[in-house]
From TrEMBL:
PANTHER family: LIPOTEICHOIC ACID SYNTHASE, PHOSPHOGLYCEROL TRANSFERASE I
Highest rank taxon of the organism: Bacteria
Sulfatase N-terminal domain mapped to chain residues: 251-558
The species this protein was found in: Pseudolactococcus piscium MKFS47
Chain sites annotated for binding Mn(2+): E259, T313, D490, H491
UniProt protein name: Lipoteichoic acid synthase
Entry-linked Pfam families: Sulfatase
Topology in membrane: Multi-pass membrane protein
Record-level Gene Ontology MF annotations: metal ion binding
Residues the record marks as active site: T313
Length: 720
């Protein structure tokens, strides 16, 4: 057996194959024991098992083109050493930062040194010997002559065949990855996704290409380019409404991100059969959000549109907190978020109002590159999936379910210094809207021919209940009265291709469904709850996510005129009722709608095929204004123009000042240092936790009249 093995590895092809095998085993060790690739199904596991082979064979196979014996073996071992070093470095880096080393990370050498140099020894354990033990094995086999040098040169034709085989294998791998995750590379969901589907080496190449493209555009930008942005901001600034300016000054800001939540769900009642009476009845889908929407404490907008594209949720975050758009292709967070300069909401409020900022999200921190982008935005804390005990009982493929997210975030929220600026990113109302099982099941499904539509109402109802429970906690802990709560839908939940199947549920005919109907379904809820206020109303102003930040800052008493924001205060008398969508030919105004190449009268949906001169003039003006706003936004994002923005009192952000590990310990240290001056919820509650004020019940516990099954309650996921 040993002799047969020796004969194989003593050929150049056999030696290369042996190195490929060893590195494949080390890669699998890293995948399953060092990285958290967050597998959702067995197909993803299969791809992860296979994906190291193609790239490893391609790189090690390059040495086969070398004729000189010593040079071949030296080059093979050098390539193998570099691959191993890269794998081990990423394993160590991931242990500290729960992400992979990117080109930008390497370029920021001080950050790499901080990330690896200071923590490598602490993170090293005996299992890491697996990364280096093979070098001893190879050396021993060579010393014992089990591996003998093969002096025969490998033919170029055979070498080309090996290269072709590896490229073919990678192509098949990429095709299989696209089956499970369409637009994997074009949308750039997450570094973790690329490694999970394609491998560490392809991820590095992919990241390098994207970084090069981004840097080339950035290099071409000049300080003088910012003048056009300044002019646009000045020309389009909407002065604050004196009746609402500063009414929320100094209050906590709490964002509640309503995943995939569309405006039509507000006040919607789903007709379904009552399981007890067997008669048809109406089920209110979102009773709590409905109550907020009509409250005198709420500024609610029923003509508020999402403006995202491929970056979806991350685009919504870009718009809401920066007041400019995402990109025409891919995610701005992924391609530019880790390197661009920002003047974002958390940074402005930190430097102007002394706010502490934090994000709570039950998915992996690297999804949409949040763990890097948030540092650039100025977020002090990011409580991602690593801060919660996540398992199959309380989560699904997009992270921790909403009730667990809200309830288990209290442990971290209560130690933040007030005023705070926080964001809760929910996920339960996410495609494919799979119905809840067990004691959370029971809300009726719709009965269309599309299962995605059918489940949408039940998951929205779950989200509604989760939000109500969080509001109950805010009131019980006395946080509510000193906060302003912003609730927004990030993007559509039902895609345009499915809208005709949705038509009947909305009282429309799918045969007469038009692009105008599609346009109106891009509306999402936008509510600003200001406790104690009695000026609330349902506002019919047309606006979009780009308008949030100017609106919020004015409510907080902060003039936004000196900041690079492209939106306008929705409450301002000067607000322009025209919103551009990320597609350059789509826009909506209070009178006209341009969608999918057709012009309609807003309100009636009547198509305009032969516009009169006045209408044509208005269409041209709207086209020009929308194109200009998108052009200015693209200049900001692709050219990183905010690095040239004139001083407006904000100090530049250094991302190296932020580390999202050990967030709770950090908050407690600050709390202890401040002593009696601490303003945290915990301190104001007499140094006692408020977690016991959180109350949660399952759907079946809330609806015993349905007699669905024995009711239950939810548990906890917070890591202690």
């Amino acid at each position: 057996m040993l002799k047969k093995f020796s004969n194989i590895v003593s050929t150049r092809l056999g030696f290369t194959a042996f190195l490929v095998l060893l590195f494949w085993l080390k890669s699998l060790f890293a995948y399953f024991f060092k990285f958290d690739l967050d597998f959702d199904n067995s197909f993803q596991i299969l791809l992860a098992i296979l994906n190291p082979l193609a790239s490893t064979l391609l790189l090690l196979g390059l040495a086969l083109y070398v004729k000189n014996t010593k040079l071949y073996y030296s080059l093979s071992l050098v390539i193998y050493f570099i691959l191993t070093l890269w794998l081990f470095s990423n394993a160590t880096y991931f242990g500290e930062f729960t992400d992979f080393i990117t080109v930008n990370t390497m370029l920021a050498s001080s950050k790499v040194a901080a990330g690896l140099g200071q923590s490598a020894l602490n993170l090293f354990n005996f299992t890491d010997l697996f990364f280096v033990i093979d070098f001893l094995i190879i050396g021993l086999l060579m010393w014992r002559k089990v591996i003998r040098f093969d002096h025969r040169a490998f033919s170029k034709r055979a070498g080309f065949a090996i290269t072709s085989l590896s490229i073919l294998a990678f192509t098949v791998n990429l095709f299989m990855a696209e089956i499970d995750r369409p637009e994997l590379l074009s949308r750039g969901f997450s570094n973790t996704y690329v490694v999970r589907y394609l491998g560490l080496v392809p991820f590095t190449v992919y990241d390098g290409i994207n970084t090069y493209k981004t840097n080339q555009v950035r290099k071409e930008a000049k300080p003088t380019d910012v003048a056009e942005v300044q002019k646009y901001v000045s020309d389009n600034h909407a002065k604050p409404n004196p009746d609402t300016f500063g009414i929320a000054k100094g209050k906590n800001v709490i964002y509640i991100h309503l995943e995939s939540f569309q405006q039509f769900l507000i006040n919607y009642k789903l007709k379904a059969i009552d399981p007890t009476t067997k008669q048809e009845k109406e089920y209110e889908v979102t009773p709590f959000l409905n109550s907020l929407f009509g409250s005198k404490e709420t500024f609610a907008f029923d003509n508020f549109f999402h403006q995202v594209k491929a970056g979806k949720t991350s685009d919504a975050e870009t718009l809401m907190e920066n007041s400019f758009f995402g990109l025409t292709q891919g995610s701005f967070f992924v391609s530019n978020g880790g390197k661009n300069t920002f003047q974002s909401a958390p940074d402005i409020l930190s430097q102007v109002g002394g706010y502490t900022s934090a994000v709570f999200h039950g998915n992996v921190g690297s999804f949409w590159n949040r763990n890097e982008t948030y540092k650039r935005l100025g977020y002090n804390y990011f409580f991602d999936q690593t801060y919660f005990n996540v398992d199959k009982s309380n989560s699904f493929q997009y992270g921790l379910h909403d009730k667990f997210l809200f309830g288990d975030s209290i442990e971290y929220l209560e130690h933040l210094q007030q005023p705070f600026y926080t964001k809760f990113i929910t996920v339960s109302n996410h495609y494919p809207y799979v119905k809840f099982a067990g004691d959370e099941g029971g809300f009726p499904l719709a009965t269309t021919s599309d299962d995605t539509i059918n489940g949408y109402f039940a998951t929205a109802n779950y989200l509604d209940t989760a939000v109500k429970e969080f509001f109950d906690y805010l009131k019980a802990s006395d946080v509510y009265k000193n906060s302003v709560i912003v609730l927004y839908g990030d993007h559509y939940g039902i895609s345009n291709s499915r809208n005709p199947q949705l038509a009947e549920l909305l009282g429309k005919n799918k045969e007469t469904w038009s692009s105008y109907d599609d346009a109106m379904l891009q509306r999402v809820p936008y509510m600003i709850v200001v406790p104690g206020m009695d000026k609330g109303r349902v506002d019919h102003t047309f606006g979009g996510e780009i308008d949030n930040l100017p609106t919020l800052l004015h409510l907080l008493g902060i003039d936004n005129s000196k900041y690079p924001q492209l939106g306008q205060d929705l409450l301002s008398p000067d607000h322009r009722s025209l919103l551009a969508m990320r597609n350059t030919d789509n826009w909506v105004s209070s009178t006209l709608t341009n969608y999918s190449g057709r012009i309609y009268k807003t309100g009636t949906g009547e198509e305009i095929t032969n516009p009169d001169p006045d209408t044509k003039k208005q269409i041209d003006a709207n086209n020009k204004q929308s194109e200009l706003q998108l052009k200015i936004s693209d200049a900001i994002t692709t050219g990183d123009l905010l690095r040239f923005w004139p001083s407006d009192g904000l100090k530049p952000i250094d991302p190296n000042d932020y580390n999202y590990t050990k967030g709770l310990q950090k908050a407690k240290v600050i709390e202890k240092k401040l002593g009696d001056a601490s303003t945290s919820i915990f301190s104001q509650n007499g140094d006692k936790t408020t977690k016991d004020l959180w109350q949660t019940q399952s759907f079946q516990a809330l609806h015993p009249e349905l007699n669905l099954s024995q009711a239950g309650t939810s548990g906890s996921s917070a890591k202690k």
